[in-house]
Design a protein that fits this description.
Elements lengths: L5 H13 L21 E5 L2 E4 L4 E4 L14 H12 L9 H11 L7 E5 L2 H16 L3 E5 L12 E3 L5 E5 L6 H4 L2 E4 L4 H11 L3 E6 L13 H14 L2 E5 L12 H5 L5 E4 L10 E5 L1 H4 L18 H14 L3 H21 L7 E4 L2 E4 L15 H16 L2 E2 L8 E2 L6 H16 L1
Parallel strand pairs: 3-15, 5-8, 5-9, 9-10, 10-11
Antiparallel strand pairs: 1-2, 2-3, 4-12, 6-7, 7-8, 11-12, 13-14, 14-16
Helix pairs in contact: 2-10, 3-10, 6-7, 11-13, 12-13
Bound molecules: pyridoxal-5'-phosphate.
Length: 428
């Protein structure tokens, strides 16, 4: 029997009259997977509980921050202690220093941090800083990559390979979009062409070293090394956007795991432990260009908020001993084995897993490394499966292009069950 979602339906209807699309962020509206968004009343560990009293195992985990699961006791305790001492200072506090030290311990090439309140802000600041220090206007990004919703980055490829971007959102003037150049991932020739055409105008190239928000488009280290070499030669900065990958697979970044050094790193999600935090990290010589030392302006009323910092500190303290990552890898294997066993004969039962990040790519053939290579049939299969999974108490991110996250709060049985349910549904 289908669980009742009467309250969620009523709440969603009411929300739609009060808020555009009923939501505070677009994908939450279930536009591509269909059905009614659930209204969650509380969450604990691996579980969500909705307003109708239904229970779900959550594999979206607030889109990545909750690597320790919902409401981890140590994180909640740290937040409560901080909150009792004041919700916001708008002034300096010791926790800024503690979180900065913990973050920098994961990024050996970085020397300083600027805290902000979201990944979007971190990236926006990185772009302005890159433009400020190089005195150049253009940014290079890669097709399909989402780096938050700032104007410079809501840009997609125009027609042709080497091209100015066109805005991917109304409200971004063409003149802004034209300062962003867009290139396919995993394409050395296209990279070379872009640097030949625009190298001396580029302030920075921005890429997730492990592109994970438009599928999981793992790049070959040689391609990333080429990007590093070309940016260096052109005098442009390389920004690794590690908002998702930072502290997700190891204590630190994915770029360092590959041995490729970026000039600036952007972070968010995990370093806030579920509270709003973003950060920009860089070497002193670049960070000195930020106000108040330098002429690149950036500020925030709630930046360095003590409650958010406390959640981040508690989270990184737990992650620092490395045991969490071993646990997550072993949980991940609990996903691979049953899915291979129950659906391995289906050519379209395809997925890529790196530690606690899984992308279901439900189309035959090699897992793509670029947005252009993603087959539509994968999304069609995923979209069909999303609602039945919800009915079975499994919450995946409501988009085929988003990854599935595991947390240390999931049990091996839950993860095995996830794989088995997926195997059953993709057979149907
Ligand atoms: C790689 C990447 N960069 C930046 C952002 C923007 O972060 P936020 O949503 O915290 O503004 C996201 C959000 O998902 C992201 O995945």
């Amino acid at each position: 029997m289908k669980p009742s979602i009467k309250k969620s339906e009523e709440l969603y209807q009411k929300a739609c009259s009060l808020m555009p699309g009923g939501v505070s962020s677009p994908v939450r509206a279930f536009g591509s997977v269909g059905g009614t968004p659930r209204y969650y009343a509380r969450a604990q560990g691996s579980r969500f509980f909705d307003e109708d009293g239904n229970e779900y195992v959550d594999y979206c985990l607030s889109w990545g921050p909750l690597i320790l699961g919902h409401a981890h006791p140590a994180v909640v305790e740290a937040v409560c202690v901080a909150a009792r001492d004041g919700l916001s200072f708008g002034a300096c506090c010791q926790r800024e220093i503690e979180l900065a030290e913990r973050v920098l311990a994961g990024f050996p090439d970085m020397e300083q941090v600027r805290f902000v309140s979201s990944g979007t802000e971190a990236v926006m600041t990185a772009i302005r800083l890159a433009r400020g220090v190089t005195g150049r206007p253009k940014i290079l990004k890669f097709t399909g990559g989402y780096h938050g919703h700032s104007d410079s980055l809501l840009v997609e490829a125009g027609s042709g390979l080497v091209t100015f971007g066109t805005s991917s959102s109304q409200g971004v003037p063409d003149s802004f979009a034209q300062e962003t150049v867009v290139c396919p991932l995993n394409d050395e020739e296209a990279l070379e062409k872009i640097f030949a055409s625009f190298g001396d105008q580029l302030a920075a190239a921005i890429v997730e070293p492990l592109p994970a928000n438009n599928g999981l488009l793992e790049q070959k280290p040689a391609w990333l090394a080429k990007l590093r070499a070309l940016t260096e030669k052109a005098g442009a900065l390389l920004i690794f956007d590690e908002v998702i990958s930072g502290f997700r697979l190891r204590y630190g970044g994915y770029g360092d795991l590959l041995g490729i050094r970026a000039d600036l790193i952007t972070l968010g999600k995990i370093i806030g432990g579920g509270m709003p935090v973003g950060a920009l990290c860089g070497p002193k010589k670049i960070m000195a260009a930020l106000a108040p030392l330098g002429g690149v302006y950036q500020a925030g009323t709630l930046s360095g908020n003590p409650v958010s910092l406390a959640a981040g500190i508690a989270t990184l303290e737990i992650l620092a001993d490395g045991g969490s990552y071993e646990k997550l890898e072993s949980l991940g294997r609990q996903f691979d084995q049953p899915l291979r066993q129950d659906a391995g004969d289906l050519a379209y039962a395809n997925w890529r897993r790196l530690g606690s990040v899984i992308w279901l790519y439900l189309a035959p053939g090699e897992i793509p490394r670029s947005a252009e290579g993603i087959a539509d049939e994968s999304a069609e299969r995923f979209n069909k499966m999303h609602a039945p999974l919800l009915d079975r108490g499994i919450y995946l991110a409501p988009s085929a292009y988003e990854v599935t996250f595991l947390s240390t709060a999931h049990s091996p049985d839950e993860v095995t069950d996830l794989a088995k349910q997926i195997a059953t549904l993709i057979r149907e």
